[in-house]
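User: Please run a holo structure prediction.
Assistant: Happy to. Please share the sequence and the ligand.
User: Here you go; the ligand is S-adenosylmethionine.
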Amino acid sequence: MSNIVQANPDFIVEIGSGSGVIITALAAVLKDARCFATDINPEACIATSNTSILNNVSVEVCNMTLLTCFKEYLFDVIVFNPPYVVTDTEEVFGNGIARAWAGGIDGCEVINQFLKLLPNLMSSKGICYLLLIKENKPLEIINMLYGMKFNVDIVKQRKVPCEHLYVLKIYK
Ligand SMILES: C[S@@+](CC[C@H](N)C(=O)[O-])C[C@H]1O[C@@H](n2cnc3c(N)ncnc32)[C@H](O)[C@@H]1O
């Protein structure tokens, strides 16, 4: 959180905000920033909206895939805990709750869609925090990001039962 505060962001977005806890916490600390959230699941959008209201912060919530409906917005902070679990591809594109976790091949189908958009989403001081698991092949993703002229740091790794988690910090 302190790194994000130091970056003094004006525009922050959480993709796939789910309950809205993360973007609400950011909005509570970064009172001058404009905070957005998106989720493909309309019920998650309602949950995010309710969480922000209950905590007296302003979060503008949009039901969309990734950030595809934002035209010409450049974000200073992008946070994404994607659906990263290895599943069949059909689960990724269904309508059910499986979209909360289903990542398809290598768990990367949504992650790869997102990374293709990333160069056009970040401001010059932009930072993206992306959560991955080992099955997503983080080193391959990092090499791909280097090829896209991004800098990447692994800022956190944690092993929990059944998952080895990585948080990437991606910046220009
Ligand atoms: C792993 S959950 C993360 C939820 C919450 N951000 C958290 O950290 O607890 C992934 C979220 O991404 C949403 N999601 C899945 N595919 C998406 C897409 N293409 N665009 C936007 N949101 C998506 C899901 O509905 C779900 O809320």
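The mean pLDDT is 96.
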